[in-house]
Amino acid sequence: MLLAFLPKTWFVDQNQWLLYLIALVGMVGVVKGADWLVEGAVGLAARLGMPKVIIGATIVSLGTTSPEAAVSVLAAWQGDAGLALGNGVGSIIADTGLIFGVGCLMTRLPADRFVLSRQGWVQFGAAVLLAGLCFTRYASHGDTAQLSRTIGAILIGLLAIYMVMSVKWSRQHTLREPDLAGPLQDDIPHVPNNTETNTFKPIAALIFMGLIGLVIVIISGDALVASVSEVAEAHWHVPKAVIAATLVAFGTSLPELVVGITAIRKGHAELLVGNVIGADILNVLFVIGAAALAKPLPITEPGTTQPLIFLWLHLPTMLLILALFRVYIFRASRVGNFSRWMGVPLVAIYLVYTVIGYVASL
User: Fold this and answer.
1) For 267, which DSSP code?
2) Would you put residue 295 in left (φ > 0), alpha (ψ -120 to 50) or beta?
3) CA–CA distances in Å: residue 279 to residues 119, 174, 181
4) Residue 54 burial class via C-beta count within 10 angstroms: exposed 0-12, middle 13-18, buried 19 and up
5) Strands 146-147, 297-298: parallel, antiparallel or unpaired by DSSP?
6) Global pTM?
7) CA-CA distance, 353 to 358, in Å (whole number)?
8) Closest Cα to residue 162, out of 118, 203, 197?
9) Strand ranges for the chain from DSSP E
10) What confidence score (pLDDT) does residue 5 get?
């Protein structure tokens, strides 16, 4: 199932060349939308006097995860509650393994010690809390285990506390953000940004720019993934299982990936770091919390391999990647940046996880 806002029926039985055109337009749209979102976020950070990494961990991550929350809640109401849990955990794996990993491979990402020692621990704690809830519920209830509405309400309550604390932490931040360091940054084509110009724009205009950019990224990304998926299935005769394990899985993380790459390209890599940390937190407290509040989320599906895949693949992979990320944070906080080699294990884990998930689903 393609978790998207654009109905898949719009792309079925369409002319192959029309689908290619839609894919091309979608690709252009995600790039341009990401440009506007990044510029709006950077300008807003300048106007509000907030660090870009904090903006990335709150406003940008809230925007990029809101569609996932909406779709997960809708899926829960429509009887596909189990999809919400897998979607949230899978997004954490993709955000940290794929997106942060690719970012590390592109450049030496800055490490803001203030944020990493606060939001970074919330990120890890939220994931451990989710894993603990899932394993304990399964141990006590077996195949009938689920995350209840009460648990959903608790997660939403923790989300409110986190947002309040993020505002408090942003006011305590010294604003001495680390810069992209090292000659490797020169290897990345730099696109002149409009930060100084945006500083003089009204806050409402900057918010509007960011929102329009976010909407364009989401809709264009949906169109891109849906059109390519239809071409692969109907015209190239690629099995649906392969499409689900590759294109659709990639598509759910496309907004965060494009925004992260654009942020690096424009010299605002702090946004990528903040967005990954914030998105991981929100995938637990916001996406899964809201979906569980709408309808209890089953942890297992009796008669299927769901317990094996979710409990023994998805959750351990999430914890492994975030534990590795914590090790990276410890080292990066001392030297001021994340080294490029750190991206190799993260991307490798993500690729192995994707392959195992595909094989297990056959």
Assistant:
1) T
2) beta
3) 11, 23, 25
4) buried
5) antiparallel
6) 0.78
7) 9
8) 118
9) 109-110, 146-147, 297-298, 337-338
10) 60
Task: Tell how far CA 353 is from the center of its chain.
Answer: 16
Average the pLDDT over 85-101 and give the result: 88
CATH hierarchy code of domain 12-172+197-361: 1.20.1420.30
The residue type of 268 is H
Looking at 59-118, list the stretches that DSSP marks H as alpha helix, in order from N- to C-terminal side. 61-77, 81-93, 101-106, 113-116
Q: Where is 201: in which H helix or E strand?
A: none
Q: Is 176 exposed, middle or buried (0-12, 13-18, 19+ CB in 10 A)?
A: exposed
In whole angstroms, what is the distance from residue 139 CA to residue 159 CA? 26
Tokens 């192959």 correspond to 16
Q: Which position has the token pair 């959903």?
A: 152
- What is the C-alpha to C-alpha distance for residues 176 and 167, in angstroms, rounded to an integer? 17
Per-residue pLDDT tens for 304-320? 445 567 888 889 999 99
Reported as a single tens digit per residue, the pLDDT across 96-130 is 999 999 999 999 999 888 888 889 999 999 999 99
Distance CA 352, CA 348 (A): 6
Kindly provide the b/e burial profile for residues 233-242, where b requires at least 16 CB atoms within 10 angstroms of the residue's own CB: beeeeeeeee
Contacts of 135 (CB under 8 A, 6+ apart): 311, 315
